[in-house]
Amino acid sequence: MNTTSARPERQAPWHWEQDASLRFVQVDLASSLSGPLHAAFSGRHWSELPAVNVDEGGWREHLQRLDAHEPFFHLELELSAQADSRLWISLSGVPVFDGGGTFRGYRGVGRDITGERTAEATIASLSLMDQLTGLSNRRLLLERLHSARLASVRSREHGALVFIDIDKFRDLNNTLGHASADRLLVAVGTRLAACMRDCDTVARMAGDVFAVLAPALGSDSERAARNAHTIADKLALALAATGDSGDDTPPFTSSLGVCLFQGAEASVEEVVQRAERALQEAKQQGRRVTRYFDVQTETLANQRAAQEQALSRALPCGELRLFYQPVVNAAQQVIGYEALVRWQHPQQGLLTPGHFIALAEESGLIVPIGEWVLTQACRQLAAFATDPALRERTVAVNLSARQLAQPDLVERIQHILLLSGAPARRLKLEITESMLLTDMGKTSDTLRELTRLGIRFALDDFGTGYSSLSYLKRLPLSQLKIDQSFVRELLTDPVDAAIVRTILQLAKSLGMSVVAEGVEQEGQRRVLADMGCTEFQGYLFGKPQPLE
Questions:
Q1: Which residue among 53, 235, 301, 490 is least packed, with the fewest CB closer than 10 Å?
Q2: Average pLDDT, whole number, for the chain?
């Protein structure tokens, strides 16, 4: 509700009148506004106007003034007069009395101030937005950081402020020229914005320094630290995506500084200084570095960095082991194995994939590790081929998303098969449903090339991801693996039983075989067999262990 002093109006005024019940009885308008405004005003009481900027309390205040028969000036209303647009109107009015002093209503003038409000909004936007990238500027980021701090006082949730700097940008600017350097800044802003949630703020602070404000990362400090680490990894990965990002940017690297905050523990200025300090430390360490100010986050980051460094040494130091879990047929005879990697950590002992595979995926170490697993499995297949009792057994190897994305994957596998002498028809590669969300055409082409070599493909953890009949139709799959989460409650949960039965029927109609994973009880095996399942894997038949 605005009743401030008059401002210059560009539009010609129009006249209106109300009766004693404060309903509009006459609205004289210019022809361009007659339609929407007649519909908005005619016959309506004040409180019935479609004004989106006045709530019930605002109308109550205004009506108190009218009940006292006081004049009013420059009442600004934002009207939803049309479905696709808003209209701003400024109204001024005075009470009307007859010769006997009886109140007869109000009359006054109105003005269309939509143009002025639009211009003001544009100016406000310009003052809060970076003109080159279209991102928030430093001023808006600081305002939102202030709001995030106040919100976290109530919610107790942590937030994170990340500063990002392009390494040696001055050299890039001199080499590329200003126009190309500006395009690089725009591309960096676009990549950062594409990574973040709607509630996050991505800003260009100045020059080549960007910032990301991520509120609501959780009230538990350790969880918030992990979330902040995930955000930093995601940003770093997006900025490192040179060549396949689609924005034709020249090669560059970036450094990141991360600071966690919660409530009023630190002021806006202190949070910014901490993020800047972390960024400075990152830049001092060299290119493509992330540093954390928060002690707990930094501890976790250092632990992760140490684990990643140790994992990078695992392969050349011979610390990886390949375990095999048997796959049996309906007669419980071993027909093959799934190869599963283990890490014999020097201090922590034997680690299962759950302790290091995610880190290997994120760091890219999964590519050499996966190639090592495939090489060892193929050597084992070649050894099987020399024994008449074992030559028909298969070995299944999990293929990671990063491996599948390698442009020379087919050539690498051909080379491994050739060197090992393994029969390709006994090699089975397992992919997961989540891997099918990437480039479907490229994935299909890669799988078909490998199928032509004789390799077979199985879809692992079927039913837990995003598969559809179109995927199953387009990809050269020969087997589905029922995820152990369905097998675990098979005997007690009718829903899981129905899902398993459906998967078996689907596979049969598509001409695929099925392996049930996680079979630990004889009762589970019997029920699965009665449903038509002919291949099984699980502790009932053997745990993963060295083949010997």
A1: 53
A2: 87
